[in-house]
Specification:
heterodimer; A: 191 residues; five-stranded mixed sheet; B: 579 residues; Methanol Dehydrogenase, Chain A; 3 helices
Chain lengths: 191, 579
Amino acid sequence: MRQATRHFARLPLLALVATLSACDYLRLLRPSVLEQAEPPVVALVNKLPDVDRPNEAVIARIYATGGLTHAAVGEDGVMRDEIWARPLQLIWTPAIIVMPKGGELELTVHNPGKSRHAAYLPNNGGHMLLELPPGTSGRARIELDEPGFYWFGCPVANHFGRNMFGFILVEGDVPMEARLDRPPQPLPPED
Amino acid sequence: MLRSAFAATLVCTLAMAGCIELERFPTTRDAVLMDELNGRLAGSAPPVVADVDFQRIKNARGEPHNWLTYYGAYDGQRYSTLNQVDSSNVRRLRPAWVFQAGLIGLQASPAAYAFEATPIVVDGVMFTTGPEGHVWALDASTGDMLWHYQRAIPLDVPLCCGNINRGVAVAEGKVFYVTPNGYLIALDAKSGKAVWEKVFVNVRAGESATLAPLVVKDLVIVGSSGAEYGVRGHIDAFDITTGERRWRRYNVPKTGEPGSETWEGDSWARGGGTAWITGTYDPELDLLYWGTGNPGPNFDGSVREGANLYTNSIVALRPDSGDMLWYYQMTPHDVWDYDGVNENILFEQDGRKLLAHFDKNGYLYILDRRNGELQRAVEFGQTTWGEVDPQTGAVEAKLVPTEEGTEICPGPAGAKEWNHASYSRKTGLLYVPVINQCAVFRTDDAEFYLSLPYWGGGASLSDDQQSGHVKAFDPRSGLEVWSWDSDYPMVGSLLSTAGNLVFAGEPTGEFSAFDAISGEKLWSFQTGSGIHSSPITYSVDGKQYIAVHSGWGGWIKGFSPQLYGAPRGDALMVFALPE
């Protein structure tokens, strides 16, 4: 009985551990992050709130990325993801879309706020425009075949310049037949 | 226990703090192509390219109203028999129409983008390109846009010098061009839609692509860029119809191959020798003539002792196989970045089949193009780097880059950049845009890492000690016939016509016409941005037009630093005589 009580008493602790393991904040404690936490970096991070939103000093916002999302690959091979024009924030959420390979991305974009927005998107063939009146959602099907990163933004009234821009990262590598015939070459040293 | 529960709640709250519930709506809207929002876009072009084939390109001179291939004809002469505009009426030349590309987007640097293309014209339809993967089909008499295609180009493409493109090739109903990240793309010439695409470079190794493809027989032929990144340069040929690669030829041999003895150790693997300017072709000899770029690293030759074949060379290749029949190396063991990519102009003289090549090293080479034997080498620019024997071509290097820095002429852009010379069949003269400049060349330890610049030093130009010329040379005597002097380096290609004219774009934006015999400047028009491209001429319904891209940029620090801050642009200017 006493043992059972002890197990029961541990439950909140287990719940806490489970919660913490999924917590983004705690993941900052991993060694690869901590080793970058030199005093100048910490000072920089502490200053970021000064520039990641409009305030008395700045209109633009820097470093407010809006987060990152991984597009899911559907059974039809098309990748799908969704992002939002965050109300009252002039920021895409998420703002970085990772495509695991080159191909087609079906992107759903929501505009729940009261401002008009649009998504100006890279696409093989020509840029695409998705108009997003307040309180609407729309869909864009874009094709990006080559690995690398591309930019997208809101072209309405320079929302782009006020940080309503984001990136699409396409993962992948150059096919073997396009690579140079030579022995492996040294990669740049890690910083 | 209570404390634990409280802690758990607190952590959960913190963990959720970053999550914001955002509303979804039924999707009621679809994205549209920006081009669909251009009410004036026709959306398709007449099927003028359907019957453009090897025979027609071979006989391009038989249809002077068109500009069917990069140099106007396979011979690279950049000469037109059109003569409606001539030295007596050119002063009346005025703009017929202007096409504004209006390029927007994130730019790596103000200098990175330039408008460098050579338009192609087929029966009243013009095909041309801009940076960032743009291709346009335009009505050649009005400038109206027929279709537009843009490949999405990643931002993280390694570029040697500029985000630029030099134009398209057309044949068999298709338009071919390359993207900065090395895709060769075949578009349907009527609709502008992609038909096939093949990647031929590795951006992760620092390679890129800038040149206009060349169609020969059933092949479309391209070359790589990026010798500043320690790559191994190559020329590739693809099947016009399927896009299948038929051959690749490396310009730097690997261990055991002929020429590999001119490389120290495994330095060949980073040896450069790219092929970023379109070749020329002699159908009778069935030989392709292609220039090859500088060795890597550019300035520190100590890690690659030897002549470094086949960099800084003209290679004569069989188009069917890529096999090399002969080569001529202008600058063995180059340590000045004098790559030999410049055009090879094919012309006849007293029944002899000759080739003229104005090299960056400041010498004009006249070769027998059957076998590569030197006929004559003539100094056409300011040179202190060394001497080339006019009869044998033997090179004596005199000044080389040093750790402390040595002033050497010409600078790294050469006495002539890639911009093309012209040969007039009417006057029998060669016309060349010339750069007068010197630079302080320095060496530095060349440390190689994949995809990072591999210069092994650098070259600094002074901002105010440069000038330029348009010069005319008689290939028989090698003598200079006339020279027009400019306060700035001349970095635009030349065009000569049967109207006794030579057209030249100036870095300050003037587009000018010169008397082909006297060199007198007869006409000039300020286009608003520097010209670093290649003018052409064509006619529609009997009316002659002259077209040139105006849009300053590219490697300005290398060829004209005093104009680094000059206005950029992206206009295609087209001129004609008034009705």
